[in-house]
């Protein structure tokens, strides 16, 4: 799972194998370590829940969890839809969330092993 943060926006990109794990286990996560100390890390995760809220976020110290409704996650996984998007009111503005399928790069062959087929691959030169 790839994480991109810019300003008040956060995007997760999910590979096909991660999508399968998310749907079967209800959670996928990655951990980035910044230093040798045990608390110098950040866990970012994607979870599903029976909730009707399509997309939301939970924040705990050293952990950010994007939460999708079960139904929405399954519908997304079984369709051609690229992602699930939402803007959350956070009191000091909005947090923009995006959870997207990780598509194969069109300009290189390496690193495309566990990716979704790129819908623009027909247009590649």
Task: Give a quick rundown of the structure.
The chain is mainly beta.
Question: How are the secondary structure elements laid out?
Answer:
Blueprint: E1 2-6, E2 9-14, H1 16-25, E3 27-33, E4 41-49, E5 55-60, E6 63-69, H2 70-77, E7 83-89, E8 94-101
Parallel strand pairs: 2-8, 4-6
Antiparallel strand pairs: 1-2, 3-4, 5-6, 7-8
Number of helices: 2
Report the C-alpha radius of gyration, rounded.
15 Å
| Low-confidence spans | none
CATH class: Alpha Beta
- Main-sheet strand order equals 1-2-8-7
Task: Describe the sheet with the most strands.
Answer: 4 strands, mixed
Overall, the morphology is globular
Beta-sheet strand percentage?
35-45%
- Estimate nothing, just give the exact number of structural domains: 1
Helix % is: 10-25%
State the assembly state of the protein chains. Answer: single chain
What CATH calls the topology is Gyrase A, domain 2
Q: Which H/E pattern describes the elements?
A: EEHEEEEHEE
Mean of residue pLDDT? 88
Question: Could you walk me through the main structural features you see in this protein, from its secondary elements to its overall organization?
Answer:
It is a single chain. The chain is mostly beta strands. The protein contains 2 helices and 8 strands, in the order ββαββββαββ. 14% of the residues lie in helices and 44% in strands. The mean pLDDT is 88. A 4-stranded mixed sheet has the order 1-2-8-7. It has one domain (2-123): Gyrase A, domain 2. It has helices at residues 16-25, 70-77; strands spanning 2-6, 9-14, 27-33, 41-49, 55-60, 63-69, 83-89, 94-101.
């Amino acid at each position: 799972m790839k994480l991109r943060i810019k300003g008040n926006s956060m995007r997760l990109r999910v590979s096909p194998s991660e999508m399968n794990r998310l749907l079967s286990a209800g959670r996928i996560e990655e951990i980035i370590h910044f230093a040798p100390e045990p608390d110098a890390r950040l866990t970012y995760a994607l979870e599903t829940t029976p909730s009707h809220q399509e997309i939301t976020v939970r924040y705990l110290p050293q952990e950010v969890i994007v939460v999708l409704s079960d139904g929405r996650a399954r519908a997304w996984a079984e369709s051609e839809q690229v992602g699930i998007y939402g803007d959350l009111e956070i009191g000091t503005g909005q947090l923009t969330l995006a959870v997207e399928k990780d598509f194969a790069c069109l300009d290189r062959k390496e690193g495309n092993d566990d990716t979704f087929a790129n819908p623009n691959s027909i247009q590649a030169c």
